[in-house]
Amino acid sequence: MNFKFSERISTLQPSAIREILKVTQDPTVISFAAGNPAPESFPAAEMAEIAAEIFANDAASALQYGVSEGYNPLRTLTAKRMKEKYNVGRTFDDTLITSGGQQVIEMLTKVLVNEGDVILCEMPSFIGALNAFRSYNAKLIGIPMDDDGMDLEVLERTLQTTKNVKFIYTIPTFQNPSGHVMSLARRKKLLELAETYNVLILEDSPYFELRFAGEYVPPIKSLDETGRVIFSGSYSKVLSPGMRIGFCIAHKDLVAKLTVAKQVSDVHTNLFFQMIAARFLERHDLDAHIAKICTLYGSRAQLMCDLIDEKFDGKVRYVRPTGGLFLWCSLPDGYDAMDFCRKTGEKKVVAVPGSSFSVDEHEVTPTFRMNYSLPSEDQIRTGIDLMADVLKDYVK
Amino acid sequence: MNFKFSERISTLQPSAIREILKVTQDPTVISFAAGNPAPESFPAAEMAEIAAEIFANDAASALQYGVSEGYNPLRTLTAKRMKEKYNVGRTFDDTLITSGGQQVIEMLTKVLVNEGDVILCEMPSFIGALNAFRSYNAKLIGIPMDDDGMDLEVLERTLQTTKNVKFIYTIPTFQNPSGHVMSLARRKKLLELAETYNVLILEDSPYFELRFAGEYVPPIKSLDETGRVIFSGSYSKVLSPGMRIGFCIAHKDLVAKLTVAKQVSDVHTNLFFQMIAARFLERHDLDAHIAKICTLYGSRAQLMCDLIDEKFDGKVRYVRPTGGLFLWCSLPDGYDAMDFCRKTGEKKVVAVPGSSFSVDEHEVTPTFRMNYSLPSEDQIRTGIDLMADVLKDYVK
After folding, report:
1. Same fold, A13-43+288-394 and A45-283
2. Checking phi first, is residue A227 left (phi over 0); if not, alpha (psi -120 to 50) or beta?
3. Residue A126: closest CA among chain B residues belongs to which residue?
4. Which of A204, A314, A351, B256 has the fewest CB atoms lying closer than 10 Å?
5. Is the pLDDT of residue A61 over 70?
6. Given an 8 Å threshold on Cβ–Cβ distance, is A132 in contact with B264?
7. Chosen CATH of B7-43+288-394 out of 2.60.120.760, 3.90.1150.10, 3.10.50.40, 1.10.3720.10
8. Do B103 and A128 touch (CB under 8 A)?
9. Topology, domain A45-283
10. CB distance A270–B273 less than 8 Å?
11. Which stretches of B63-179 are DSSP H helices?
């Protein structure tokens, strides 16, 4: 059989990260390539207790069909927490529970973007989002970043000269892969630009609560008084990614359309785990749980940075992260990190080359992404040693 | 804010069934409107035991990210069972785990159908599928049915005269809403027509194992030696719908594209429940469990039919179902079931008017769908009495 695929999907390839992750199924490979939280961060004991209770008392409803909007107590608790703690959500907004943050990105593209419409993205950016945009034949334009986030001058010039821009896609806090945090001043200015040029903002923020240094910067959505910002949140990095629970807080007209998209996509998100998440929020202190995760990631990040300082001989540049999961590294100009990562792979340590996060996947770049949340301290030590060995001959 | 939605989704409305289901949240309303399995059919005790064990021994992997293709033991067990028991799957096929059968339908449309392409559907058909097709601006053409399934003469004329037909959508066994089973002769002929006119077949079969009378008819996919048939299956009606686990067995080239679509859609399906389903299949006798469900539904269907025969005074026609969840009813010609269902709703008993399953949602039809899997015997008795009361004056 020769299948003729739709135009929207025919150019889409499996993501490079997923392919690299398959290599890491070899247990002798040390992976700095993942985007996974530490398994020690899952509140398994609390979840086990709640699950046993649901099976004992509420199995008939937990295993039955639910509504597409999401399990109501979880919607309510999520909205309440995001409002009280982060001032996210206004009376014109509504909350939708999704099958992970990824589903917010995919469905928002589906309901907003016609083929050929433009989405402005940070450069580099999250491959899962870029591929979701590509899967609807959106045209992606990358906006460069510095340590304070998107370059807003380039953004404004692009908005001035580009037709059919549907939204600006940003991960403003602990950006994937760069780790950058957009400054408050830029967040305000970004929102102003979105108002001026009448485009929407998709604020993708799965990491923003994982801060272990520096000062809190409020979400762009907390500044939104008109409904122009769509906030995509996730319980993946603070409870468990395997359960696939995320959420969207956005203007209710938009959430109504997203709910229709959700109905035809998967009807609703796994109801049993929506109930687990809701009861966890009711009974346990999620903030205290997150604080423990931050301590863990802070110490792993510090260890990785200290070892790089000690062993890489100044050959790799990076900025010390203040939160999130990633360290964004760069070889000296002119080097190709794809080639470097292939070489380290042969020595059984893997990172992700920066081209995987590029709007142009064939870009040659000296950058690569290192993850410090998943590997243990021992693995960090061994992995950095192995990388230092490769670097010694690789960069003279 | 005024949002400008994409062309593909702007005409899509929330499904009438979902809106009716909201009315049924009133606990005093007897619902024959659902498509839900009986909660007594969920193997909650077995699942609770497996869940406790996973939390105790495998929480770190069960709560972590998984792969988009699905949890490997579940893929393997599903493929093995479908092959050994139903001869579904060839060496050129592959298996993908999805977030319910609905996701197979949505993603298949995404990867195959360009805007304006044609999908041929049974008339009437499952609203969730029709809306998924509509959400990609597919053009739907309905093919009438008789008791043996699709009218293949009309189908062939349509194939002869219609351009850009991508696939034929069929629920061949215990069709939703009609309950019809396509005869084996028609299944063979349908496959021949698909070969002749070079179109694919989406065989949606969430109910086919729920037979309580009559003779087994093999899936169309079991006859497929070329990879032209995509089989969409589901654990919703045999284990639990709330967990959202379905599967697709199709040619591996197609499954590869669907896997890319799955990556950008929700990354993967809830991993914990994939593990529960796999261990259930390993340790328990799913066939015996399904046999119990069939006995339950058979007796509820018989009760509903017997009471209709006794109390509806011949005013409602129907065919005794041999499996599945639904009884397809018809008022005398000229009556509008939408109006009738509104009237019964006022008396606190609800069914779904046939127009909800039509390619043309504004069609006036005397048909309506009754569900017998969810209501208890008492509810069936009371609900049929209430309907009989309405009928008495409604049809003279």
Report:
1. no
2. left
3. B264
4. A314
5. yes
6. yes
7. 3.90.1150.10
8. no
9. Aspartate Aminotransferase; domain 2 (3.40.640)
10. yes
11. 72-86, 101-112, 127-134, 152-161
Please list the residues that pair with B239 across neighbouring strands.
none
Pairwise CB contact (< 8 Å): B63 & A44: yes
Where do the structural domains in chain A lie, given as residue ranges?
A: 13-43+288-394, 45-283
3-state secondary structure of B141: strand
Secondary-structure class of domain B61-283 per CATH = alpha beta
- The pLDDT value recorded for residue B363 is 84
> Is pLDDT of A241 > 60?
yes
Per-residue pLDDT averaged across B239-250, rounded?
98
Does the domain formed by A13-43+288-394 have CATH 3.90.1150.10? yes
Q: Which residues contact B85 (CB under 8 A, 6 or more apart)?
A: B287
Restricting to A residues 230-259, those with a Cβ less than 8 Å away from any Cβ of B are 236, 240-244, 251, 253-254, 256-257, 259
pLDDT digit string, tens, across residues A277-323: 999 999 999 999 999 999 999 999 999 999 999 999 999 999 999 99
Query: What is the C-alpha separation between B265 and B247, in angstroms, rounded?
Result: 15
**Cα Rg, chain B, nearest whole Å:** 21
B242 and A270 within 8 Å at the Cβ level: the answer is yes
Which helix (H) or strand (E) segment holds residue A144: the answer is: strand A139-146
pLDDT tens string B273-308? 999 999 999 999 999 999 999 999 999 999 999 999
Residues pairing with B353 in the sheet? B368
Closest residue on chain B to A244 (Cα): B270
Q: Say how far residue B95 (Cα) sits from the centre of its chain.
A: 19
Which residues in chain B belong to E strands, given as ranges? 30-31, 93-98, 118-123, 139-146, 149-150, 165-170, 200-204, 229-234, 246-251, 317-318, 326-330, 349-350, 352-353, 367-371
The full DSSP string for A321-334 is: -SBSSEEEEEPSTT
Supply the DSSP string of B204-220, one letter for each residue: E-SSTT-B-SS-----G
ipTM: 0.97
Asked if the model's pLDDT at residue A14 lies above 80, the reply is: no
State the average pLDDT over residues B181-197.
98
> Exposed/middle/buried for B225, CB within 10 Å: 0-12, 13-18, 19+?
exposed
Least CA distance to A93: which residue of chain B? B1
Cis peptide leading into residue A206 (ω within 30°): no
Instruction: Using alpha carbons, list the distances in angstroms from residue B84 to A25, B249, B323.
Output: 30, 14, 22
Does A57 reach chain B within 8 Å, measured CB to CB? no
Q: What is the count of residue pairs from A and B with beta carbons less than 8 Å apart?
A: 262
Per the CB < 8 A criterion, the answer to whether A122 and A171 are in contact is: yes
